Amino acid sequence: RACAAWIALDRSDEENGGLKVLPGTHKVGEVPHVHHIDEEAAITYVADPEWAEGKVQEVGMEWFTLDPGEVSFHDIMVVHGSERNRSSRRRAGVSAIYMPAECFFDRDMVTVGERKGGLKLDYKNRPLFVVRGDNQHPQNTLLRYP
Q1: How does pLDDT run along the chain (146 residues), one tens digit per residue?
Q2: What is the helix (H) or strand (E) element at residue 20, kind and residue range?
Q3: Beta strands in 36-127 (DSSP E)
Q4: How many CA atoms lie within 13 A of 11 on its CB side?
Q5: CA gap 69, 59 in Å, rounded
Q6: Dist. CA 22–CA 27, nearest whole Å
Q7: In which element (H, E) is residue 4 found?
């Protein structure tokens, strides 16, 4: 029930490792993941490549091309990622996650990757803002946007 917004600061395309998604995979439930060590990667658990290749054959891969200032939106549960930037161009962006006001943001959340021995993500100091309306979950610690 959350949506990711990725705002491009630089041009982002297939050549410099821009965002790619497997359409419709946010509806399949839990996706099988495997441990994948890659010194140049930020994560150590990835969607199982055999499973993902089957989905690519079934639904195709969709690449997002964005110019600076453009934004892409996707369900946070859709299988997504990017390739290494092997171009001479920088690829930078800012990400924000939007969730309904009644959702709870679990700052102690343990990701699938961490449970299986992968990278630990620390959510303890991640700011939450009420963008519209009122906070509907009393356990959320929020920042108020004036």
Answers
A1: 789 999 999 999 999 999 999 998 898 888 888 877 777 766 777 888 888 888 888 888 899 999 999 999 999 889 888 888 989 999 999 999 888 888 888 888 887 777 777 767 778 888 888 888 888 888 888 765 55
A2: strand 19-21
A3: 45-47, 62-63, 71-75, 80-82, 93-98
A4: 7
A5: 29
A6: 11
A7: strand 3-8
Instruction: Considering only the C-alpha atoms of the chain, give the largest distance between any 2 of them, rounded to a whole number of Å.
Output: 48
Q: What does the chain come to in residues?
A: 146
Please report which residue ranges of the chain form alpha helices under DSSP H: 49-59, 112-115
The two tokens of residue 18 are: 């821009």
- Measured in Å, how far apart are the chain's first and last C-alpha atoms? 25
Q: Which two tokens stand for residue 14?
A: 């297939």
